[in-house]
Amino acid sequence: MSKIKRIAIYGKGGIGKSTTVANLAASFANDGKKVMVIGCDPKADTTRTLCGRRLPTILNTIKENKKPNLNDILFTGFGGVLCTESGGPEPGVGCAGRGVIVAMKLLNQLGAFDNDLDVIIYDVLGDVVCGGFAVPLKEDYADEVFIVSSGEYMSLYAANNISKGIKKLNANLSGIICNCKGIENEIEIVELFADKLDTKLAGIIERSQLIQDSEIEAKTVVEKFPNSSESEDYGKLAKSILKNKFNSSLNVMDDEEFEEFFLKFLK
Q1: Which SS3 state, helix, strand or coil, does residue 29 take?
Q2: 164, 162, 156: which is closest to 183 by C-alpha?
Q3: Given 3-state DSSP classes, what are the helix, strand and coil percentages for the chain, each rounded to the nearest 5?
Q4: What's residue 132's pLDDT?
Q5: In the chain, how many domains are there?
Q6: For the chain, which end, N or C, has fewer CB atoms within 10 Å of the first or last residue's CB respectively?
């Protein structure tokens, strides 16, 4: 068997990481790949569109059952995708990143990674400032990172910060995924940003009502509208990621450089 593709998806909160992860997983599954998705966001909503419902989280399961088995925390979704959610504390209480640490240790202990997998995808909240959210990279659970970003200022600012964390961890940034928000010159901005970081634009997901309509029904657009251009875009992104050979070189901008980079698009 070929080496497992182990990727972590990062990006600013609300940028569309979970949507991207779920549709990527569905696309991989349609291509015959055995996939596992690990939601590392305390909102625990990454796998909802793959399973058609919100899953019980690992942290909540541990509270109710001190010795859970793998079937208590790992579920099968669309296309046979294996799904799990780390969960986290209630808002304003405790460290959300700690949930990721606990979840990863339990999954490892129960043999979740012993499945005959082709792809493992981690959906990680926000940025890598918190040690808990850096776990997939620090503890060698993931080999490479893709950052989801739009062409908006705060999204790109967060992406640059994430890149700083990736560089400090000696991890590999494989590319930027442009999840379009419909701003002027968006794809050009994100492509130039990727070039500035010495990485590449891995794929483009156009803004679409079909994607939102699918999520209302707790489905991916890949499942709900398999013949749509949106489904095709996720399929292209999945193939691009599978073929990708990451480059360990990475350039990051300090805050002043980033301001200069972005402000030139406003002139």
Answers
A1: helix
A2: 156
A3: 45, 15, 40
A4: 64
A5: 1
A6: C
Computed from CA positions of residues 162, 114, 24, 240, in that sequence, does the dihedral angle turn out positive or negative? positive
Least confident window among 73-82, 101-110, 202-211: 101-110
Hey, CA dihedral for 39, 212, 30, 80, is it positive or negative? positive
DSSP states of 103-122 as a string? HHHHHHHTTGGGS--SEEEE
Give kind and range of the element (H or E) at residue 179: strand 173-179
Confidence of residue 102 (pLDDT cuts 50, 70, 90): confident
Mean pLDDT (whole number) for 77-82: 98
Domain that holds residue 29: 5-266
Q: Is residue 35 over pLDDT 90?
A: yes
More confident residue, 238 or 92: 238
What pLDDT sits at residue 89?
60
For residues 157, 17, 30, 5, the Cα torsion angle rounded to the nearest 10 degrees is 60
Burial of 206 (0-12, 13-18, 19+ CB in 10 A): middle
CATH number at residue 44: 3.40.50.300
Is 79:29 a contact under the CB 8 Å cutoff?
Answer: yes
CA distances from 33 to 29, 54, 175, 215 (A): 5, 23, 21, 23
Active site (catalytic) residues:
12, 17, 43, 127
* pLDDT at 50 exceeding the cut of 90: yes
**pTM of the shown model:** 0.92
